[in-house]
Amino acid sequence: MSTDPAGARVRRLLAGPVGCAFFLAARQASLTVQRLLVPEVSLDLAAKARAALDPWTGYAAAARAEVLARAAEVGDLASSAAHDPRSAWWWQRLPAQSQVSLVGAEPEPPPTTAASWAAYAQRPAAAFFTATRFGSTSGLHAALANQVGDWEPAYPLLEEDIEVSAEARVYEVNNAADWHELAARSPSTVHRPGSGPPGIHDDAAPDWSAVARRWDGVHLTFAGLLAASFTPATTAAGTTTLWTWESERTLWLRQPFLARRPVRRVTEEIRSGDPGHALRLSSAEPSGTRDRGWLRRRPGPRARGESNVPDMGDR
């Protein structure tokens, strides 16, 4: 669990648009703190909040402004959740958790030189992600179930459990400042300012070649998803905004894995556990449009075994 005082954790959660949207969705659904802190519920609700703030809709900037302006409405709920010991998993470090993959593709080494696409997409061109398993679900499952992001996989998918070595070197992202520090230490410049979603200011992303020399993986905690997503951080090094990671997950730059165990083949589309908990925003317009092509300007996917098991880098 984070060593930050609970009050600081609350401020960071409510400084993030996704954090505010998450608690607003919980309030609209009349969820108790006890129910909210059930991992399966938190994961699904966070995916719905992230979907409501899809950065490529015509109303995305207005939606972010709306939820931030309403932070005071959910201050008590956020405080109760952050002070509750049952929320400890929101900040839990790796490799304490059991990891799950939904693809089965092998991670590739990051490029030896920084690529403009990798800076823009905030991940290497060939990315391998895992997420923390909670029963039969994870952040990756929740993101797919709620159609968050641009991964439109061809089923079946391979699901496997991954045992991570205790010696793995994992950088933890719990808030926007953590992501900014990772990028500012070894920056890769986003060469086309303004090429991202409207209203998102992002000058630099991590140079994954440099990151890989120090870390085996980068873990966006559940708290990090809420606090860092769409939240700019600015220092003399510039401004960074994490906007492409849609769930709690770990990006692996090498494999500090003790075992990979196939669990099942997911043959049907993953569906949301409770469609009724979608966030309602006054700024959302039914006619809002979405460009789903932003992450397809990269080399095609590389699969292991079968061509319909996609590489997570194809997202």
Oligomer: single chain
Total helices: the number is 11
- Residue share in helix: 25-40%
Give the CA-based shape: globular
Question: How many β-strand runs?
Answer: 11
Summed over residues and divided by their number, the pLDDT gives a mean of: 85
Low-pLDDT runs: 287-315
Structural class by SSE content: alpha+beta
Distance between the first and last residues' Cα: 30 Å
Give the C-alpha Rg.
18 Å
In which order are the strands of the major sheet placed?
4-7-10-2-1-3-11
Main sheet properties:
7 strands, mixed
Beta fraction: 15-25%
Order of secondary-structure elements: HHHHHHEHEHEEHEEHEHEEEE
Summarize the structure in words:
This protein has 315 residues and is α+β, with helices and mostly antiparallel strands. The chain contains eleven helices and eleven strands. It has a seven-stranded mixed beta sheet. Strands 5-6 form a two-stranded antiparallel sheet. Strands 8-9 form a two-stranded antiparallel ribbon. A hairpin with a 2-residue loop joins β8 and β9. α1 packs across α2, α1 crosses α6 and α4 crosses α8. The chain is globular, with a radius of gyration of 18 Å.
Brief synopsis:
By secondary structure, the protein is α+β, with helices and mostly antiparallel strands. The protein is 30% helix and 16% strand. It starts with 5 loop residues before the first helix and ends in a 49-residue tail after the last strand.
